[in-house]
């Protein structure tokens, strides 16, 4: 399974910065491996375009961080935080499949 976490290192928004840190902390604490993709890095322009297309096809806005599993949309930070609070993170991230 391939989990990608899309972030930006150029976020001027403190909420976005905090959510990115919290999401990575949640995944690291639960020993969930993932690949971090910084969409502000010009070398990741293809990844950014793919993310934008995927979100547009679902009428979702680009709000970072985003989690993509096996090239399919999974969730954003709010959904991860809700899953942690309800103890359903493994289900959300399809770790039990």
Overview of the structural elements:
This protein is 43% helix and 19% strand. A hairpin with a 2-residue loop joins strand 3 and strand 4 (72-76). The protein has a four-stranded mixed beta sheet with strand order 2-1-3-4. The longest helix has 16 residues, at 14-29. The protein is globular and about 35 Å long. It has 97 residues and is α+β, with helices and mostly antiparallel strands. The protein has helices at 14-29, 45-57, 77-85, 89-92, and strands at residues 3-7, 35-38, 66-69, 72-76. Helix 1 packs across helix 3 (77-85). The model has no long low-confidence stretch (mean pLDDT 94). It has four helices and four strands, in the order E-H-E-H-E-E-H-H.
Keywords:
4 strands; globular; 97 residues; alpha+beta; four-stranded mixed beta sheet
What fraction of the residues are assigned to beta strands by DSSP? 15-25%
- Spatial strand order of the main sheet: 2-1-3-4
Decide which structural class fits the backbone: alpha+beta
Please write the string of helix (H) and strand (E) elements: EHEHEEHH
Distance between the termini: 10 Å
Q: Count of helices?
A: 4
Q: Which residues sit in consecutive blocks of at least 5 with pLDDT less than 50?
A: none
**Broad shape:** globular
Rounded mean pLDDT score:
94
Total strands: 4
Largest sheet: 4 strands, mixed
Radius of gyration: 13 Å
- Helical content class: 40-55%
């Amino acid at each position: 399974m391939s989990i990608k976490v899309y972030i930006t290192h150029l976020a001027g928004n403190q909420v976005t910065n905090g959510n990115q840190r919290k999401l990575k902390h949640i995944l690291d604490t639960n020993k969930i491996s993932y690949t971090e993709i910084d969409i502000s890095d010009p070398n990741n322009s293809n990844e950014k375009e793919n993310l934008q297309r995927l979100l547009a096809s679902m009428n979702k806005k680009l709000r970072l961080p985003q989690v993509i599993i096996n090239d399919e949309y999974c969730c954003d930070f709010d959904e991860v935080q809700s899953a942690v609070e309800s103890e359903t993170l493994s289900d959300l991230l399809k770790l039990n499949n």
